[in-house]
Amino acid sequence: MATQKCAETKYLQGRREFFRGLKNLDRRSFLRVSAAAAGAAVASGVAPCRSFLPVTLAQAADPDARKQSFRFAYISDSHLYERSLNDRFVNAILRAVDDVNHMDPQPDFVFYGGDLAQLGQAKELELGAQILKELKAPLKVMVGEHDWYFDMGEKWRELFGKPTYSWDHKGIHFVVLNSVVERDFWTARGLTPMERMLTVAGLDNGLQSPFSVGEPQRTWLAADLAALAEDAPIVVFSHSPLYKLYRAWNFWTDDAEQVQAILKRFKQVVVIHGHTHQLLTNRIGNIHFHGMLSTAWPWPYAPEGMPELTIQMSRPDPFNPNDGCGNGEVRVHPDGLVDKVYNLWNRNPVTVGRNYTSTWGKQGIPPRPNRPSY
Amino acid sequence: MRNLITIGRSRCAAMALLGGLLAIVPAGCSQPTDLPASVAQAALSEAVFTEASPGPEPAPDVPVTSCDGERTVTVAADLTGRELADALMDQWKRDHPGRDWVAEEKARHAMKPPADNSALLQGDQGKGHPYGNFTQRDLEQWARETEKLVAEGSRVFHDAKALGGTVGVSCDMCHPHAANTHPETYPKFQTQLGRVALLRDMIDWCIEHPVRGKHLGADDPRMRALEAYIMAQRSGVAMHYGKH
Amino acid sequence: MSRSMVSRGGLRLALAGAGLLAAVVLSRPSVAAGQPPDVPRAKHGAASMEHQLQLLAKITPEVDAAKAPAGLDPAIWAAFIPKDNALTADRVALGRKLYFDARLSEDGSVSCATCHDVTRGFTDQRPVSEGIAEQLGKRNAPTTLNVALLQTLFWDGRSPTLEHQAKAPILNPVEMGMPDEAAAVKAIRGDPEYQEAFRRAYGRDVNYEDVGRAIAAFERTLVFVDSPFRRFAAGDAKAISPEAKAGWDLFNGKARCVTCHPMNPSNPLGTDNRFHNVGVSARHRDFESLARRAIQALEKDPSEKGLDELAVGSDLSELGRFMVTRNRADVGAFRTPLLLNVGVTPPYMHDGSLPTLWDVMDHYNKGGEANPFLDGGMEPLALSEEEIGQVVAFLFALSDDRLAGESQRQLTVQRAAAGKQRPFRDEQVALRRKLLFEGRVMDRGGPGK
Known about the structure:
heterotrimer; A: 374 residues; alpha/beta; 6-stranded mixed beta sheet; 12 strands; 16% strand; globular; disordered N terminus; B: 244 residues; mainly alpha; Cytochrome Bc1 Complex, Chain D, domain 2; two-stranded antiparallel ribbon; 6% strand
């Protein structure tokens, strides 16, 4: 992937040539040139910055681009043990991969939302990586706390690369954060790596620190987004929710306000998060938050702090081990807003559309279940 | 009263009830101090304290010595119980005008109040019955024992091996802080268990299936601990049995 | 299939394929072939109506229509009887007459009793049923035993009442084939016995609604719940064999049957009256593409018309409950059948594809067949052969005493067939050495790719 600097140089060069050619053209040739320039920029693997082309020209150049939406699939929170210990979780991620491989047409890419392993063991991560390799569509991954805190991300980096990165796809800017950074709670207590991992794995023990993004990543994020215009479409992936839902279960990002402040200047931003294993919808200011389902097990809703926009799914049936689990897909519109589809196994899929969050829940209300959620 | 005495026993059905009480007083009651305490008490009961108005002279028949030992009265032979006592009281009142027999007897048998030992008592001791008077320290000790079992339950709840599980699954993975266990809805008919289930039946089912261990059974100390923990987490929630 | 595809080579290939398929099917010992011996036969393999009526009279002596059947909670029983069809002896008699009357079929060869044969477990013990002109349907005939206690009828639950269900096969072109209700009424209206019976039963002339009502009334007398298991559940420890007792423990435990087949005092039937995809449809070659097309049709045009267009030229039967509810969660889902008397109603599943109860156990032991809509309750069970035998023994203990003869015969026949081959067995998956979805994901190029 080209670094920031090279892309900028290329932009500026292309821009100079473009304007040089403008001077002596009639309208038709003018459009041809601008289209060619846009095409060339795309073909070279550098997504053209929208601000590079004059806005009206961009529209004229590719009138269909604005209407074009695409979709990606997601699989998340598989919590794999080695199969000799627990085959049920392995079967579940296989089922999710099978679902995605049978999508027709195939999604543009598949996003993995974190917590691939349960206890961060090398064998667990390798098993997950091996299974995810069977996906036909390209894969992007994000780290979760269960993947990280045994060896502080050593195996993860070896298998999947940097946990924090961004890329552009069809005009949308995607960012992936490692939002499960915790203050060191283990050194003072003299915990072994496994003890540290088990502490983090226990949702309700209250011993671990709250999740955060942390100052270095916030700086990186600000820089990564600096060049984008206010109406730039942005989707941020984060394992923790990037807002403060329920501290006791670490459904929480400690520096959420600071992260949200970085995102505040944009017209709208979508955050897609894992960790909560449930249908979850929220909106804070300009940010639309959507949770991802887990393949392994569902979680109950927090007793307090629930966002108003969330229409809770009904209580999963314990006699059906798959109930409340699943995978899903996200349809991304050119302006960056999304329709979030929850593909709940053995239930009808639930779509939380863009107009639900953009109208603060007044329109496009997803169906309410007729059984209690507890 | 007066009419009854002159007329005799024939109308005294109701009086016979009270007469039963006084029948234990020997007919020729002499020194009050010779009476056993219980009898003296009976004689001092309120029923007796109700004054009978003096009536006419009884028909002389049988000599009766009054309770103060000073006077002998002759009364009709067929008088018993209340009528007899009233007759004697009438005579005493005639002999001792202006004196209040009831008040004098009360004063003679009154007890002295006990010494003030309130300095020795703490809290609510001395009030109510002995078995129900637990102290703050008692409560703390009992709460401590309860919390020990709740803590043991929490330990088992969070430990797949302690549950006897074989797949690395512990209860807290689906039920953080015992959320979504809703123990207040048991007993309820659970069709997949084929009977009305109690909380422990559902726990056992979970241990058999998601946790893939062996049934604990109601008496297993781990089951008792798990129930304690789960119910402790839902303290304060209204009971609502049968709710699905 | 378009014309251009029917080249000679192509035809030969198709015939060879069909021949191979037929060879596979015919080589499997058909349990249906082992039917009750010495029984006079009518059309389509059914026992003669006279013989059936005789047997029926023997096993259901005079039923008191006014009282609840023995052993059933009267309050529950009363809830099952609709207000406009109270049970009377006249209605039952009329219904019985109609049930055995082949005049209600287009060519006079099929009555209800053809496919719901008293001598064959009140079903036809065939994979799929045969109707007029020897046409085969797509679904296995459910038994009419205890049908009064179900909440919905048909494998996809599209009939809410017995009355509604009874009217449907008469008009189905591959079953009894009457062109319309008027024709059905016409077939029997001229008979003075029927005129008299309808008037006595309903105080009306012969009409189609009452045909459904009367048949339903008759079916309500087919309550057969007195099994050895029932006596065991009531406290007689010796009523069933130790093997069956072990099977009952497995049923409630390791085998997980009770998740969908609850058997308890308030629900003795062994069905949760719900719809589950257990993967039987997935064995059909085109199930997944059919399911995909159905869902796309649903997303594009959720009206009746959209799905009707899909129906032309495709076999929608495998979609099951989905065709009724249009719920994606119901694709390939069929109603949990009741387990009472299950021993006498082979072959099993909605398409009759599992000939014996051992095959049924093999199917569940490996967690069914993986498909995108598989019910989450389906899991490999890791049951040993001995444990499978125990559950089967338990299932045979659910047969009513009056059907003990047929149940015993089935036990022998099925055990012999299962001893020869077990085509649905997959030990690798049952013992979890290979996971349910592993084959689909890791060995790409296999079915479903």
